[in-house]
Amino acid sequence: MDESEGDSGRPRKRQKIEASVPQDDGQDLLTSSCSDDITHIPLIPADRPTELVIAYDGSHNVSETELTTKLHNWDPDEAIFRRQFTAARHALSDAGSCASDLVWRSAARDLDISGILEANGGLSDAETTTLAKMKVHEIVKNWAFSLPCLDRTSQGFNVTPKFAKLVDILKSFQPLGDAFRGVVLVRRRATAIVLSDLLKQLVDELRFLRPQVVVEHGPFGNPEYQVCCRDALAAFGAGRHNLLIITKSVEDLVMDTVSVLVRFDLFDSQLSYAFSRASTRGHASHLLHMVERGNEVHRHILSRVAQLGEAPNPWIDAAGTPQGATPPSTLHETSDRYLSDSDDEDNSEEYLQDPATSARIYPRDAPVALYRFLAHKAVGAPGSPLFTYDKDSSSLRPYVCSLSLPTDGNLKKTAGEPSYHEGEARRSAAYTACAKLFRLGLLDSHAFPRPPLRIENVDSVNPQRKDKNGSNGTSRYPRKSANFWDYSLSVPLKVLYPTIVHPVQADERHGPIMLLTRLPLPDLPNTKVFYNGIPTTITFTKGAPLELDEEQFENVYAYTLRTCRTVMNKPFTCPFDKIPYFFAPLKPTWSTSPQSPDDPLSLPNVAEHIPWDLVTLAAQAFVIPLPDPSTITDGDIVDTIIQDRWVEFTKRFDAQAIRTDLNPMSKPEPGSLQEPYGNYVECCKARRKCFEGLKNYDQPLIQVFPIPPVLNRLNPSSAAAELKSSSRYLIPELCAKFTIPASTFRTALILPSITRRIDDILLVKEINAKFFDNCIKETHLHAALTAPSAGFEFDYERLELLGDSYLKYISSMYLFVTHPQHKEGSLHALRQRIISNKSLQEDAERAGIPPFIQSKPFVCKLWQPTNFEILPTGPSTKEKEPSAEAVPPPPPPPTTSGTPALGLFSGPADPTKDLENQPQNPSKKPSKRSRKDRQQEDQNFQWLGDKSIADVAEAIIGAAYVSGGREVALKVTKALHVPILEIDTWEDLGRKALAPPPSATAKLRSRSIESVESIIGHKFEHPHLLAQALTHTSVHGFEMTSYERLEFIGDAILDFMVIRHLFDREANLSPGALTLLKGTMVSNSTLAAVCVWSGLYQHLHFESPELARSIRAYATLIKEKESEEYRLAEEEGRSPGQYWTHVEPPKAISDVLESIIGAVYVSDNFTPVGAETLFRNVLQPFFDKHITLKTLSHHPTKILFELFQAHGCQKFEMVKKSDFPLRRFVYATVIVHDVVLAGCVSTTVQAVTRLVCAWAIDALEGDPAFMSRTCNCRLQSAARRAVKKALKQFWDEAGNDDEEIGEVESVLQSK
Fold it and tell me: Please, are residues 290 and 170 in contact by the beta-carbon 8 Å criterion?
């Protein structure tokens, strides 16, 4: 903590305490032995403590003690004493070698060696364990333990400087005598115990101390633990103990005001800070933060603490009190789960587990989780009390805490279990509230702590890589599946959590469907599906949990199977206990009961909107008879699907109208399939088996449209390929009514696409929580993980451009700071080691990214819900004849109800049982796996190239920058294992940087610095850096301080600013177009032109006559070109273009602009303010005026071709026609996939070609989604490769010769 705000608001240096002053004067008690290591954190109000920062020296490269080394011989793999070895290491780093040995002394006392006899000969595993325990006990028992030595000058110094500083702090409070009450807050239980042991041995130094350890041990609510905790706190209040050594898990239990609270370990937690402040009130109390010198992590944590302490913060003042306070939405609370008391032990206490991320909330985590939830949901007014207490003095557990939330539901007031202590009661209330929120589906991933993440050894080969394809450089990786479904199946099925899937359609042709899950799905963002290339928004709305009776469960189960079977026309089956989710329809009236915007804790009740009659009907039957054909009306077929076959798996039709003007004897309409026949009856005779005529030849016909099959609705171009079917006419007497309404079934047809999108979102949430602490916006992270080959409406390409430039930016800064003696060439080589595709691919593998990448397109025909199986079909399962009308149903078997069975199964049972009873052929040998089976298995793997993985890593960094700026991007860069070492924030660069002194730089001409500052609009804090930026290597004596190093970082800064500018200016432009524009903007010729245009070139300092001549010649010529271009642009009514492209500039002119950018950046202490000002005043006006897609110097035809190539489009053409025979005009059109993109007319072929391409470019700029909506070449190319691979594999397995394989390949290549 270097600076604080003074009374005037200006930064001032913090004052150090130089000597001890008596407490009676209201001053500090700390002695001069540690005064040089103390820094004030000023706190003005009288009720706040004296807050200080205590610095200590770090202890590095500490080797394990002799005792630990000897014990390792009996347990080299740490399989027997894993926890003890871990505790000894923690004690060694926190308190020193003396403390590490004390861990073993305590462990030996706990070993039970009674009855252990030394075995002879060969030993079993159990015998080896008992022998190791006996030997360890013997070694420790006979070990000569040393007392703690605090003399830093002695060779026997066996504690850490950190512990020695703690002793100095505690000594300072000896004058308080019996009035002293202190608390030491540590991270780990092992550290707390060993600190107590050490302090008890320092009788001479700390005779007045009576330490007691209070740590959480055992399950929450354990009476024995609660009694021990209560007694310890009571003893502390009574003075029997005057020093508590606690872990963070019990800090909320200490509610007495203490003399001093020492934060021995720091925690990045505002709530932890609030608890510490609550225990230290008034200037007589001290709140001390122990910080290691030079530790940047400690410095960043303290910087946030200082911001809280220096300004009035009512929430901080109230949050640590027993009543607590509703947090603001800006609450900063780390999501790293705290494991102080369990360390790496298995925890047996109850918990809540997030099914999406596997994170857990234990009771001790509940208050923090509750605060995070309230802040994320912005529930309640910040600062309002949360907890109230009731005390029953006659009870053994007198305290009951209640939590009040601003809602009208059952969450309005939540009471916890009776407890021995107010702090335990508060935990109980918070955990009970979290459990309620979880059961209601409101507790999302943001409230949970960060789940544990196992990091692979960076030196090991990542086991994710399975196979390597040498021909194309790709490797096979497993595709991760969402943890949500597997975890939800382990939960007993008691209630269902609805998520309403509702396509937003103006014509209301799609009805809402509920996705019912065993555990609540997290909040899902709206998504898009595509019909004929036109996007439709899908909304996801959570509903209140449903409690169903046994009959309703059976009906929903059967309805789900019915839906999946008819959507895919496959005989799916799944046992009830393994089904991952259920489907159920909703009435249209559901839309009238949305969630209340004023109460974020309420969910709409959907139970009353479920049409149970339709659910039961569909569960029992797939079709029912139509009304009497002679009396059927339009009202009978509203929202109806018609089947012309009486089988389950068949085509279905959307009923449109009853055509009373037509009957079976009418002549079919021209162009229809029935046109060759004289009437519809003749058509039936010719195309139906066993057709014996109709009962009524005067019945009207039903006009229908065929329902399209399941399509990939996530790909704009694949959905654009669907064809509009013509009307058909069916005879009512031969048809049946499908039991699922048409509006519901239309939505059901997109459920495969919807469930794939939900799976992808769940994976995004999982990786965001586990790897990136939820710091990336999920929509951006989803795009970053999606490869173009997936065929979605978004992919990583735009974000990859941004991430690539950011990575170049941060790595350049890092190398510039950490390698102050390296020149530009060496820095460039070092940078390539960091940002090369190979390095990024290895970094991403170490981080575990590849399984989360979404590269495979969604193959809708292979959709199969988790745990679903396809039953083997019998000969009558599916109708084989191709007729358009269905075969009349066979006579129904007699039923007790008198209703025809119509091929139904009775009762709400499994609709697959009729297939299970189909006769099978036992003599049939098992066949090889089918192509579909192989395709289904192949969905669990994906082939990724090294560049693709590197691109995803860069895109993730780009997504982080878009989400939270450069600090969040740096955090994510480090999470991806990119080697940016010892740099945690951008401020660290400024502190570590070494700049040459002013005397080491050359002297510029008079007024050069002022002139440059006037041009760029920014004043240099360190003008000698500008002198270095303007000094050419030709200046003798200043070769080491020339502009080369600054030009190295300036190039990276410029590259990043250009990409960011294009992101803002061209928000919807394709990545290919962005690359074209960026390449033009950062080219040497463009930068040289900017230098001349702005006048910066005049201030370059050099001593080369040849360079002077070339600069003068270039400046003269480029100014002439500029004047000519401006004149032509005005005459032609267009924007001026790139007049500089055909003039080769001296490289020094372009370099100087980049070096000035680097100089102003370093001068501003590595902040981008000055560089952005330069860009805004100099570069941006020039770029916006001269560089757009329409003004690029390339021929428009070349630009258009490159844009098409960037999209992978192969089906485009330019059609030119003349007005034959006059030939006065030439007409030209650009056609993409049979869609006219642009057209124009001119007098010559050359002119019309240039003009139509320019108009096509303009059309693409105006409609950025045109290519993704129209072109599906990438998808078709991937499909052709897959077919080729499958056929070649089939040919290989069949043993065909090379000639036949060559014929197949030639056919495929011609496709």
Answer: no
Residue 941 backbone phi and psi in degrees, to 5: -135, 160
Quickly list DSSP for 804-825. HHHHHHHHHHHHHHH-TT--HH
**DSSP β-bridge partners for residue 786:** 854
Cβ of 23: how many Cβ atoms within 10 Å?
16
Positive/negative CA dihedral, 881, 886, 892, 897: positive
Which residues touch 943 (CB under 8 Å, ≥6 apart)? Answer: 469, 474, 475, 476, 477
| Long-range contacts formed by 451-455: CB under 8 A, 24+ apart | 451/337, 451/354, 451/357, 451/358, 451/359, 451/360, 451/769, 451/770, 452/337, 453/770, 453/771, 455/846
With a CB cutoff of 8 Å and minimum separation 6, the contacts of 1077 are: 1062, 1066, 1069, 1187, 1188, 1189, 1192
* 655 SS3 class: strand
pLDDT at 64: 87
Count of H-run helices and E-run strands, the chain = 41, 33
339/640 Cα distance (integer angstroms): 58
What does the block give as tokens for 739? 């039991």
Confidence of residue 923 (pLDDT cuts 50, 70, 90): very low
Residues paired with residue 497 on neighbouring β-strands, in sequence order:
517
- Give burial (CB, 10 Å; 0-12/13-18/19+) of 311: exposed
Range 314-332 burial, b when 16+ CB lie within 10 A, else e: ebbbbbbbbebbbbbeebe
End-to-end CA distance of the chain: 69
AA identity, residue 213 = V
Strand bridging mode 869-870 / 513-517: unpaired
CA distances from 804 to 797, 946, 1122, 1126 (A): 10, 15, 33, 35
**pLDDT tens per residue across span 1110-1138:** 888 999 999 998 899 889 888 878 888 88
Q: Which residues contact 965 (CB under 8 A, 6 or more apart)?
A: none
Q: Cβ distance 942 to 856 under 8 Å?
A: yes
HSE-up (13 A, CA, CB side) for residue 511: 22
Element (H, E) at 1259: helix 1245-1262
DSSP annotation of 1031: B
Residue pointed to by tokens 């709530």: 271
| Dihedral-angle region of residue 634 (phi above 0 means left; psi in -120 to 50 means alpha; beta otherwise) | alpha
**Phi, psi of 731, deg, nearest 5:** -90, 120
Q: Average pLDDT, whole number, for the chain? A: 80
d(CA 1279, CA 257): 71
Report the b/e string of 241-252 with b at 16+ CB within 10 A.
bbbbbbbbbbbb
975-979 contacts at long range (C-beta below 8 A, 24 or more positions apart)? 975/771, 975/772, 975/847, 976/840, 976/843, 976/844, 976/847, 976/849, 977/458, 977/843, 977/844, 977/846, 977/847, 978/807, 978/811, 978/834, 978/840, 978/843, 978/953, 979/834, 979/843
Ramachandran class of 462: left when φ > 0, alpha when ψ lies in -120 to 50, beta otherwise:
beta
> What SS3 state is found at 1270?
helix
Task: Report whether 99 contacts 198 (CB < 8 A).
Answer: yes
- pLDDT of 793-833, one tens digit each? 889 999 999 999 999 999 999 999 999 888 888 999 999 99
Helix (H) or strand (E) holding 1173: helix 1169-1174
In 687-811, beta strands by DSSP E: 701-706, 728-730, 736-738
Q: What mean pLDDT comes out for the span 95-114?
A: 81
CB atoms within 10 A of CB 868: 20
Distance between CA atoms of residues 824 and 816, nearest Å: 9
Provide the pLDDT confidence category of residue 1092 given band limits of 50, 70 and 90.
very high
With b meaning 16 or more CB within 10 Å and e meaning fewer, what string describes 879-898? beeebbbbbbbeeeeeeeee
Tell me whether the omega of the peptide bond preceding residue 1221 falls within 30 degrees of 0, making it cis: yes
